[in-house]
Design a protein that fits this description.
Layout lengths: L12 H12 L2 H17 L3 H10 L6 H28 L2 H18 L2 H12 L6 H17 L3 H16 L4 H17 L3 H11 L11 H15 L2 H9 L2 H6 L4 H7 L1
Helix pairs in contact: 1-2, 3-4, 4-5, 5-6, 5-7, 6-7, 7-8, 7-9, 8-9, 9-10, 9-11, 10-11
Length: 258
Amino acid sequence: MSDGAIFAKKPELSLAQYKFAVLNGTPEQSKAAKQKLVDGIKQDKMASYYAMLVAEGVLQEDRALARELQEASVAELAELDKNVEVAKEEHGDLEQNESSIHRAVFLAQIGEEEKAHTAYEEVLQRPTTTLNQKLDIVFGKLRLGMFYYRPIIVQREIDRAHELVNKGGDWDRRNRLKAFECVWRCSQRQFKEASDLFIECLSTYASPELMPLSEFVCHGTIACAVTMSRSDIKKKVIDAPEVVEVVNYIPNVDKLLR
């Protein structure tokens, strides 16, 4: 994109949900979630995350898989390091920052939590980093905090994002921040704040890297059901075109609203 937009889609937030289901679901749910978790780890070459789950006892060790993941992640990281060097030698500041952000996203993808934060922060502090790039980095760090459930980090990055947005962030990123914050407030049972944010950004939701619209509607409508009057729910939620579009795919929420 012309402004260097990189909306991090890694790590996949669904994997954190699968981990939770492995540990807390019924035997059938746990088995299904474990397979999805392993599949996601393989797809994203998550060597470090896999090692962490083995150490925690969430997954059993498969040395062949661990070796395969390690080799794949090392090879791709080497390629990204090469891209960073090429950008320094042949391109301008924007491209240099982009290549470094892509490298940080990959560190987040494979489960290198601390290294990803450090890599993001290094680019964030560069004098050549644009406001929009800074916001994209903060969204990446925010995503990391949500994935590993680090409340202090999440709140810090939300506050930082608000500061940056108030300095001139574009409409798309302003709306993206509302969506991230809505989901986080739901997880913290701050349903009034979450419902307000949901109503504000529902009609312009454009954050597929966070979650599909149907999942976002699921979170938001539950918050609204807890805090809003029936008349407001009917007017602002049930009749909203975005809710009508997906509500049949989330039947439990449909029953709650009706």
